[in-house]
């Protein structure tokens, strides 16, 4: 693969990642969130595959297969089942800040991510390093979603967005993670999502709703 | 091993032995064993102090788990003086406690805390460096807090008192720690020698001095940081109040002396003015509150504030006069400070033990419900009477000698034509005079209402004399008050040695050749004795010519069976004072009149209720506490249980950190 193709593919996947993240913040429907998350998972897998091809590393290609399976297929499926049982409430009705404000916050956070990454960018001028701010921005978006959405499934989506951001930064800066470590991290994420999914359905059966603002008894 | 080292080691061993005895001894023997060991601990303290005063040296180093090095004990003559005071009070109080302690006060915790308290208190003045000092100081504070809490299960006010005490004692610790940190930083080391290298006229020294004086004043119970004192004393068991009031608050005085005489001698005159100001306000405010108090132990607590005020007044006078090179009067004031420390320790221990005996006998702390105890508790009455004489600073007691010395100093101090001295000294004289007068009223009230006349309650009517150990302790303490008053020279010599002054007194007298003043209590006693005999003889001779009259009880309406309720009570005795000082005391009065039937003129019942609040507490601390409480309630809003809010906190924190990093 020529250097130009590599750079362009890398920038394409990074752009796709950021676009999906912004769209997650924009959209309110949980179904759309899950689909976007799946696309983002495939984009991440693509990014890893591009890196693997560029560095001729078979291990990274295996990692990309793993990422695609987990983030592109398994996790969205698990989330889809969580929302499937409750079709009527599959929307984030009243987020704590409205969409306009959220999009403004997103632009601010993207700027911040680029500003903060200046020391990292100064390390080298490769295409991989140049894409690092995208990962940072995704992590910040994830945090934003976590702290402004009320629905329990939205929390999961925020968490996964955060995780995708961290993974992106890791792949871009470290030039890939050993397969064993990636396997461990992926299993962790899977486990967390499964537990939270069970918890969400328990919350719903207990309170008849998955709105976390109804649960403010846990203090003192 | 020098005698001082041996005595210090003995103290440490005795503390351990006391703790072990308190834990391991069977309940029947616990009080006896632990009490005897604590008394021996006190005596060991007296011995150590006496040797240190005599100029012997000795250093004991205890290895600790701290990273700051060993605890160093290295008593100086000044520390030795305070060790003698603390040890003597501790010994007497421990003997008293053998018979007095019962219920929670005789528990394992209580005896362990007492042994630790006495040990730590005796070792505070022996500390050879800052870390040892602070360690002992905090150990003393901790153990005394446990002791104040002794009766927490039965009485709600004990818990409040302990809370106040703990808060104020921590404030004191924090201030002292800050002050010493400033000093150690400026001096370049945490031993006393490095700290004494700081220039006393520098700004750093001034900051350190103010912080340290504030911290030590809190421990000493000086107005306006005295609020713990009148609460903690009624709450604690009496032997503990005796130790706290007679010895522990003196550690605050030791702290100020340590800073102003030993570490930074030659400070500017305004240091003295600060100390005099604190002392004057405390003396007047303390005795004013004491004079209208009707709870006996609260009265004694306020009286402690008054005496500490006088001690501060003496010390401040000494600092001012030394700064103005009026050395003769300055030395006399410094001597007066130490004499006041010793005499207050003696008479306040006697008084608190006496109050404990009264409480033990009648179950009452309220003076308005006592009376007639002199016939039922003769030993307690004698001891308390001697203590009250001392507190009122009347002749033949230690209190008189000390106040006389203080007056000599302030009267002779006003000679140079300096503005500050010319203003301070007359104020000091008038404060001492007012305080002395009010103290007389206060203790006439305390003794007269409690011990004379008739019993005002069943408890007082059925009182029984204390156990032998309690009687012995009270009599020993009372004897010390008399001995220090009759033969004050030895104490004056010791005090002079403690602060490095030439000993100008013989054993039987206190004298200041430069001031042309000399006091010989024994001569005074003989003189008074001769005069009283002469008056008595003359009166007897004159009485022969006048026919004998029968005097019946006044207010008896011709009958002798007057009700005990027709007597003066503590409240009514202090009523004129309450009126005179109405603006300063602001008592809350409540009169409820119940009319008989429809009549406007016939009264069935009149209820009078008077409550004197502590103005400082009411005006200064209450608003502060309300504010803190409000802030606390407002603070709860930060934590309302919403997950989003908690997430938002960390998110915002992250963003802020990133922004700061990015900029």
UniProtKB/TrEMBL annotation, chain A:
Predominant place of localization: membrane
Topological type in the membrane: Multi-pass membrane protein
TM helices/strands, residue ranges: 6-26, 33-54, 60-84, 96-116, 122-146, 153-173, 179-199
Keywords attached to this entry: Cell membrane, Membrane, Transmembrane, Transmembrane helix
Keyword Transmembrane in record: yes
GO (cellular component) term, any one: plasma membrane
Superkingdom field: Bacteria
Name under which the protein is recorded: Hydrogenase-4 component E
Species this protein is from: Nocardioides agariphilus
From TrEMBL, chain B:
This protein's GO CC annotations: plasma membrane
Residue span(s) of domain NADH:quinone oxidoreductase/Mrp antiporter transmembrane: 127-413
Transmembrane portions of the chain: 6-25, 32-54, 78-98, 105-124, 130-150, 162-186, 206-229, 241-263, 269-288, 300-321, 333-359, 379-407, 427-452, 472-492, 522-539, 646-662
Subcellular location: Cell membrane; Membrane
Record keywords, A-Z: Cell membrane, Membrane, Oxidoreductase, Transmembrane, Transmembrane helix
Sample GO molecular function, one term: oxidoreductase activity
InterPro entries in alphabetical order: ComplexI-like_HydComp, ND/Mrp_TM
Annotated Pfam families: Proton_antipo_M
Membrane topology of this protein: Multi-pass membrane protein
Protein name: Hydrogenase 4 subunit B
Natural source organism: Nocardioides agariphilus
């Amino acid at each position: 693969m020529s250097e130009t193709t590599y750079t362009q593919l890398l920038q394409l996947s990074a752009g796709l990642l950021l676009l999906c993240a912004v769209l997650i913040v924009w959209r309110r429907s949980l179904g759309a969130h899950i689909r976007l998350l799946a696309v983002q998972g495939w984009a991440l897998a693509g990014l890893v595959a591009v890196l693997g091809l560029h560095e001729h590393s078979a291990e990274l290609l295996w990692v990309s297969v793993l990422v695609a399976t987990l983030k592109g297929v398994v996790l969205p499926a698990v989330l889809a089942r969580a929302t499937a049982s409750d079709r009527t409430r599959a929307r984030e009705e009243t987020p704590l800040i409205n969409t306009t404000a959220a999009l403004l916050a997103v632009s601010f956070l993207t700027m911040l991510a680029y500003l903060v990454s200046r020391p990292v960018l100064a390390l080298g001028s490769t295409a991989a390093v140049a894409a690092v701010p995208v990962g940072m921005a995704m992590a910040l978006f994830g945090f934003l979603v976590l702290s402004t959405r009320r629905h329990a499934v939205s929390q999961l989506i925020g968490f996964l967005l955060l995780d995708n951001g961290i993974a992106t930064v890791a792949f871009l800066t470290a030039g890939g993670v050993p397969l064993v470590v990636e396997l461990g991290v992926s299993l962790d994420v899977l486990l967390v999502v499964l537990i939270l999914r069970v918890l969400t359905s328990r919350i719903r059966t207990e309170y008849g709703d998955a709105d976390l603002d109804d649960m403010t008894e846990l203090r003192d | 091993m020098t005698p001082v080292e041996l005595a210090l080691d003995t103290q440490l061993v005795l503390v351990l032995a006391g703790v072990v005895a308190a834990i391991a001894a069977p309940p029947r023997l616990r009080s006896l064993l632990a009490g005897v060991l604590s008394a021996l601990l006190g005596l060991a303290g007296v011995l150590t102090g006496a040797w240190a005063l005599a100029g012997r040296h000795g250093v004991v180093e205890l290895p600790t788990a701290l990273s700051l090095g060993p605890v160093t004990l290295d008593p100086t003559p000044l520390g030795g003086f305070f060790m003698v005071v603390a040890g003597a009070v501790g010994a007497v109080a421990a003997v008293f406690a053998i018979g007095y302690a019962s219920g929670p006060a005789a528990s394992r915790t209580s005896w362990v805390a007492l042994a630790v308290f006495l040990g730590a208190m005796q070792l505070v003045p022996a500390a050879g460096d800052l870390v040892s000092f602070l360690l002992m100081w905090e150990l003393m504070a901790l153990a005394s807090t446990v002791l104040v809490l002794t009766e927490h299960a039965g009485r709600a006010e004990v818990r409040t008192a302990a809370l106040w005490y703990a808060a104020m004692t921590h404030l004191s610790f924090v201030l002292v720690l800050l002050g010493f940190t400033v000093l150690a930083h400026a001096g370049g080391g945490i031993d006393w020698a490095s700290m004494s290298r700081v220039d006393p006229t520098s700004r750093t020294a001034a900051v350190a001095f103010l912080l340290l004086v504030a911290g030590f004043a809190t421990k000493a119970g000086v107005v306006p940081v005295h609020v713990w004192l009148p609460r903690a004393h009624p709450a604690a068991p009496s032997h503990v109040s005796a130790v706290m009031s007679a010895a522990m608050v003196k550690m605050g005085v030791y702290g100020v002396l340590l800073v102003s005489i030993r570490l930074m001698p030659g400070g500017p005159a305004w240091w003295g003015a600060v100390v005099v100001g604190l002392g004057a306000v405390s003396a007047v405010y303390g005795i004013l509150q004491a004079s209208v108090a009707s709870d006996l132990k609260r009265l004694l607590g306020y009286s402690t504030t008054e005496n500490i005020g006088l001690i501060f007044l003496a010390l401040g006078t000494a600092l001012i006069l030394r700064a103005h090179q009026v050395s003769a009067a300055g030395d006399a004031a410094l001597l007066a400070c130490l004499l006041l420390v010793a005499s207050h320790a003696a008479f306040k221990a006697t008084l608190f033990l006496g109050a404990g005996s009264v409480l033990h006998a009648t179950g009452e702390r309220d003076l308005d419900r006592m009376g007639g105890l002199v016939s039922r508790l003769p030993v307690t009455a004698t001891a308390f009477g001697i203590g009250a004489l001392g507190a009122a600073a009347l002749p033949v007691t230690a209190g008189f000698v000390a106040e006389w010395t203080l007056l000599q100093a302030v009267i002779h101090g006003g000679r140079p034509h300096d503005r500050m001295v010319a203003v301070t000294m007359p104020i000091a004289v008038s404060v001492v005079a007012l305080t002395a007068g009010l103290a007389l009223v206060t203790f006439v009230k305390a003794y007269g209402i409690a011990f004379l006349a008739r019993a005002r309650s069943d408890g007082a009517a059925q009182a029984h004399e204390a156990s032998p150990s309690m009687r012995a302790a009270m009599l020993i303490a009372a004897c010390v008050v008399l001995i220090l008053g009759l033969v004050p020279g030895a104490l004056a010599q010791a005090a002079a040695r403690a602060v490095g002054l030439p000993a100008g007194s013989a054993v039987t007298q206190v004298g200041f050749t430069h001031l042309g003043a000399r006091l010989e209590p024994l001569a005074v006693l003989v003189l008074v004795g001769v005069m009283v005999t002469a008056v008595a003889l003359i009166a007897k001779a004159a009485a022969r010519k006048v026919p004998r009259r029968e005097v019946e009880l006044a207010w008896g309406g011709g009958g002798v069976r007057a009700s005990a309720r027709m007597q003066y009570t503590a409240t009514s005795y202090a009523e004129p004072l309450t009126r005179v000082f109405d603006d300063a005391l602001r008592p809350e009065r409540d009169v409820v009149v119940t009319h008989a039937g429809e009549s406007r003129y016939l009264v069935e019942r009149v209820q009078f209720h008077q409550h004197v609040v502590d103005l400082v507490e009411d005006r200064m601390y209450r608003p502060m506490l309300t504010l803190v409480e409000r802030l606390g309630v407002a603070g709860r809003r930060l934590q309302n249980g919403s997950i989003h809010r908690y997430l938002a906190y960390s998110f915002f924190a992250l963003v802020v950190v990133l922004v700061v990093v990015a900029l």
